[in-house]
Predict the structure.
Amino acid sequence: MRRLGSVQQKIPCVFLTEVRNEPSRKRDCQQFQVVATENVHPAALQSDVHCAVATEKIDGTCCYVTTYRGEPCLWARLDRKPTKQADKRFKKYQYSQKTCKGFVWDVDKDFREVPESWIAAHRVQHENGQPVPDEHGHIPGWVPVDQTNKQYCWHASVVNYDAGVALVLKTHEEDEGLLEIVSVPLADLMEQTLELIGTNINGNPYGLGSKKHPVHVLVPHGVLRIRNPPPVEFQQLYSWFQECQEGRVEGIVWHCDDGTLVKIHRHHLGLKWPVGDPFLNTRPVVIHVDETPDPDASEKDLFKSFSSINGKLFSCIRDIPFEP
């Protein structure tokens, strides 16, 4: 089974889109929304999207595994964004020109500072050694997850750097209908991107853990295949999201043979997300975490918690009990 595409940039919609002057269903305070038309994007057609692998789009925050100071490390997504003043100029230009093309940035002055350890994402264009912002005025990038940095405490909860492992949710190798939570060597995840989901991420649409005992896991991108994907056609996709149990997902990401990624989000079709009973919560899950817990670890240490229920099977990830 080939490894599917790494998510380093914003993924375009599989359909051509248009902007409507009505409040966004996805972002509060945004007075417009981007919706799909019925026309498949020419780039998707060129990449033969009809033969692509369809996978579930997971609602979390993007992460990346690569080296830091010579060791495998989890990195958190951190886009370098414009200062308030530069952003005002950018939006004024967009409003007057009806496009963002042609706007000139001064990267040294127009963008907020980032930590020294920050790196630009793959395929970010550079000019004169400086990264160039994308069409949204952002420079996608990453920062290493330091277990002492409270800003990334939920990222840090899913890695144990001393043992060199991470907590991963994936499809069971022998049963496609079964999920498993496993401890995976970080070295085995090198150069992959993953989605961090859980109690304190994006409103917790999958219902993991609780305030008293937060639970987070990493989901490698492309690991949750859609077994009976609908054709890439507007009405059939709309019906699939509305009527099929497997369609109770945030969206679909198609992985084309040439490496191109395209997606559809429920919001592109005017549909609600999150939904009350997402498809991820219809699949049983088995725990395979047998790390020797640190005797000094907190009772809320996830590796310790999962080790205590190693080998057990649950009806879904939401039903994993951690309360004392």
